[in-house]
Amino acid sequence: MAWSFRKKREVPAGLWTKCSNDVCGKMVWGKTLAENANVCPECGHHMKIEARRRLEMLLDPGTFVGVGEDIQPTDVLRFSDGTEGYEQKLKRTAAKGHATEACVSGHGRLGGRPVAIAILDFSFLGGSMGVVVGERVALAADLALEDRMPLLVVSSSGGARMHEGTLSLMQMAKTSAVIARLRAAKLPFLSILADPCTGGVSASFAAQGDVTIAEPGALIGFAGPRVIESTIRTTLPDGFQRAEFLVEKGFIDRIIDRRKMRDELIAILAFLAPMPDTPLLAVTVGAPPPAPEPEPPPAKSKDKAKDESKGK
Ligand SMILES: [Zn+2]
């Protein structure tokens, strides 16, 4: 008997993507997925998406101007995980994708309104926050302060970057400080949490939004559920740390489908920050009321006034 082997037809990489929702797991045509903002058309699961693509989806076309792009990470601690040094890891990661760091920041327009924006990119070392990410988020907040614009930050991150040790933890304080300055200046900060948003990012600026928004199904928390379960020795409820659970508990204000995010952000900003050519509501509301006219001092006899001034 003669055996005939038929050559297996190979599917080019990237044409089909498997839905990352375990319950669904359907194969989705790449073009369909891209047109649907990386949301599975079968089950609505929000898959990860690159920061640049998010920018295109959120901002008015052609309005984005980046800041801090020349700030690049350095291996100050000469960190190695035993198999690879941090510097090699950075080079290898940058060569794989389009991003040179885990955050893109700058300013642009959203529905015609000037906004400062920072977007964390999970595809670059899990969106982890090192010195550059912290600096780029702070730069976006500085832009907001300088030009009195609202700040939008989309966070998708595993937390602090272990390769930068304490320096990465310092970014929690740094970003929180600049958000506090925004608050003092009465400028709105919209924090958008995408899957996953955990560790030092969820425990710093990402949790400090005036309005906290999450994408459907996003995992949001500080430590993972397994760590918590083993620490407090109890079984956690279903859906713990998911956006739907957290919106019920009041940690999140609103869950918004990625495909409607731009329109909803425009609507929210219309409440919080009027267009620059109209009087700023935030300033009017936040400004102290005019000081009352001082009452004239009661008439005193000349001798009594002299005694008082001597006593001082
Ligand atoms: Zn699916």
> How many separate domains make up the residues?
2
Structural class of the secondary elements?
A: alpha/beta
Uncertain segments: 279-286
Helix residue percentage: 25-40%
Give average pLDDT, whole number.
89
Envelope shape: globular
Reported for the largest beta sheet, the result is:
8 strands, mixed
- Assembly context of the chains: single chain
Cα separation of the termini: 119 Å
From the 3D coordinates, which CATH architecture of the largest domain would you assign? Alpha-Beta Complex
Count every beta strand, where a strand is a DSSP E run of 2 or more residues.
10
Rg on CA atoms, Å: 26 Å
The CATH topology of the largest domain corresponds to 2-enoyl-CoA Hydratase, Chain A, domain 1
CATH class of the largest domain: Alpha Beta
Q: What are the secondary-structure elements, in order, as H or E?
A: EEHHEHEEHEHEHEEHHEHHH
Number of helices: 11
Small molecules bound:
zinc ion
Strand content: 15-25%
Q: What layout of secondary structure does this protein have?
A:
Elements: E1 16-18, E2 27-29, H1 30-35, H2 51-58, E3 65-67, H3 86-96, E4 103-110, E5 113-120, H4 131-147, E6 151-157, H5 165-184, E7 189-198, H6 199-202, E8 211-214, E9 220-221, H7 225-232, H8 243-248, E10 254-255, H9 261-272, H10 281-286, H11 302-311
Parallel strand pairs: 5-6, 6-7, 7-8, 7-9, 8-10
Antiparallel strand pairs: 1-2, 3-4, 4-5
